[in-house]
Amino acid sequence: MPQGDPPLSLRDLDAISVHRLRDVGRKRAGALTEMEINSVLDLLQHYPRRYIDRTKQACIADLAHGEEVFVEGTVERSSSRPTRQRRKLVEAVISDDTGRLKLTFFNQPWQEENLRAGRQVVVFGSPTLYRGSLQMTNPVVDLVGDRTGRFFAVYPQSEKANVNTWQIARFVEQALNRCRPRGILDPVPPSVLARFSFVGRHTALNTIHRPSTMRESSEARRRLAFDELLRVQLELVRRKRQLERNTAGLAHAVGGELVDRFLARLPFPLTGAQQRVIAEIVDDLAMAHPMHRLMQGDVGAGKTVVALCALLTAVQGGFQGALMAPTEVLAEQHHQTMLSLLGDLTVPDDSRLGGERPLRVELLSGSRGAAQRRRASEGLAAGDVDIAVGTHALISEGLQYRRLGVVVIDEQHRFGVEQRAVLRDRGPGSVTPDLLVMTATPIPRTAAMTVYGDLDVSVLDELPAGRLPAATSWARGPLEEAQVWAEVRAAVAEGRQAYVVCPVIDESDVLDVRSVTETHALLAGDGGELAGLRVGLLHGRVSLAEKEATMGLFRSGALDVLVSTTVIEVGVDVPNATVMVVMDAGRFGIAQLHQLRGRVGRGLHGSSCFLVGEATTPEAEARLNAVVGSNDGFDLAEADLELRGEGTIMGERQKGRNDLRLASLRRDKEWVVAAREVAIEMLDADPDLRSHPALADEIELMLGDREAEFLLKS
Ligand code: ADP
Ligand code: MG
């Protein structure tokens, strides 16, 4: 390469095919392709899974029963034979200067080929005593190759592709050597590097693969993880601002008396959090660019009242509001709640005698008759329906809004991307309505910055006064379970009601129906624990009409107990229900359990939640303990993140080629915050990153349009 060429950018590295590395034969290149390693960039970003520190290795003679260790040795021989269960058993012997160790592998047929005689390997496992000598069963095996030095990297490898970790290490080394003359470009401003004492990118990419100390590798990781987070935040913040600049919204007239009249009618004072969030929303509504806000609030925090304030702000200025719920049951319930909270509110109407008319709220539900639906949709088109409540029917083709001003989407995680976008497009002319998304599934703040980085976030973090959290306990074993049913009977005797929820065991509804139907029969049948009580049954297979009828009966108190699948999970509000029993609770996730528990204790009576069943895995045990131990949705969200990792939070978005390879929303919280801050500073000073073309270019490369779509949609 000629001297004086500029340092290599990520785009340059992406343009160099791995085929151009010496030693990568056609066969290997094919294997690399299978691992989605096509360019030198891919290779350099194929980060080590971990490092092996040779000074921490044990010699075979020192091994002790049951102690986890690394051992390095040479393979002497390996062989395989079928077991009695007709599986393959691979046996191998390795040795070092001090002795020999036998390895056995069940069900890992590839190990025979992997452990060819003469190969240098590192094995990790705990030796056990078997017939007088130590051996390891199913240890983790890494091929060392001819690597020397104290540390070396272990790469994610692919059995199928048949490229092993030391081959990858060799390719990486070659790639790094080829980059050395020009060096690797560092597009992050030196002031930012200095502020966090980051090593340069060239150094970081070298030392993450070939550290000479563990500290070097962690410094490298810190730097490269920051780069990933910075790119994501720059993209999110830039897009958000672009949207704000380029879309015309409505500057709603705020401070009108309709909202005041509504608040004055409420039978309770607002919580401090409700007041704060309403103020945040009203500020957004007053501005000319469209609101794009997420309201996170624990179950029972009172999101509906806040949503109504947003909708009524639209209405008092002559616009319409729409509230979209994920299920028919919930839409129905929102409709009921709104009717009772709104009462006989009136809106100004110059065409009427007296200058006003009743506020008109319509439910657009698949379950309503065609005539009612037509009336509602005509009213929307004419502009004399003020607020529409419904499911995705609200965005069906052909539904016209005269002046849609504010859209509220409840329980947003159930909605697809397109729905959000379509609703946004329903504004008058080319104007985008204001959007409020509400979710009762809190996610930790730093995760929200990434997952919802394009939304402003409001947090409703206070329960109404006097609300007692449901006392939660875990009933394990038949005796404790019997106690649960006694509690249910006692609550019913006092005039209260109870839910019994059964898990979704299989995606196929048939099984769920059976489990919930059987539970119902068992409990309510002759001699059952709840025999003699009025016990209803609800699951995904009953018709909509029947579902509504059953919910209606429960709401009105004509049923004592409702046995159901999780159809009642979100948002169902029956204040007289005070006991929640969750069957087979170990099968539920933390967020789900917390949601379910939120269904009780919504009225004035103390409430309880019983988690029934054994935990079948350590994770299930941890989940149940977390739910018993805390009533705070945000704490639980943190616990959930700890237990499950961020994959689940990123959800759909991870299907894209995610740029977060090293960074973890869980471990790197402080860096998420730092990256967000830096991104905001940089974009404040330079909205299009004109003075940082290299950074802008690599964002485009790494996140691309498709990537960004994933990040921005939910
Ligand atoms: P969620 O946030 O779970 O959607 P809701 O909006 O359904 O909560 O409110 C739960 C219950 O609390 C409803 O019955 C509602 O009327 C009541 N509520 C809302 N705000 C308050 C408040 N400030 N004080 C007392 N009760 C309230
Ligand atoms: Mg709700």
Question: What can be said about this structure in brief?
Answer:
The protein is of the alpha/beta class. It is 40% helix and 18% strand.
Let me know the number of strands.
Answer: 24
Under CATH, the homologous superfamily of the largest domain reads: P-loop containing nucleotide triphosphate hydrolases
Shape type: globular
How can the largest sheet be summarized?
7 strands, mixed
Q: For the residues shown, what is the average pLDDT?
A: 85
Q: What is the count of structural domains?
A: 4
CATH class type of the largest domain: Alpha Beta
Uncertain spans = 414-418, 647-657, 710-714
Number of helices: 24
- Report the bound ligands by name, code or SMILES: adenosine-5'-diphosphate, magnesium ion
Strand arrangement within the widest β-sheet reads 6-7-4-3-2-5-8
Radius of gyration: 31 Å
Structure report:
This protein has 714 residues and is an alpha/beta fold. The protein has 4 domains: 1-49 and 155-185; 56-150, OB fold (Dihydrolipoamide Acetyltransferase, E2P) (Beta Barrel); 257-460, P-loop containing nucleotide triphosphate hydrolases (Rossmann fold, 3-Layer(aba) Sandwich); 471-630, Rossmann fold (3-Layer(aba) Sandwich), CATH 3.40.50. The strands form 5 sheets. It has a 7-stranded mixed β-sheet with strand order 6-7-4-3-2-5-8. A 7-stranded parallel β-sheet has the order 14-15-11-16-17-10-18, sandwiched between helices. A 6-stranded parallel β-sheet has the order 19-24-23-20-22-21, with helices on both faces. Helix 8 packs across helix 23 (669-685) and helix 10 packs parallel to helix 11. The longest helix is centred in the first third of the chain and has 33 residues, at 214-246. It is globular, with a radius of gyration of 31 Å. The chain binds adenosine-5'-diphosphate (ADP) and magnesium ion. Magnesium ion (MG) binds next to helix 11.
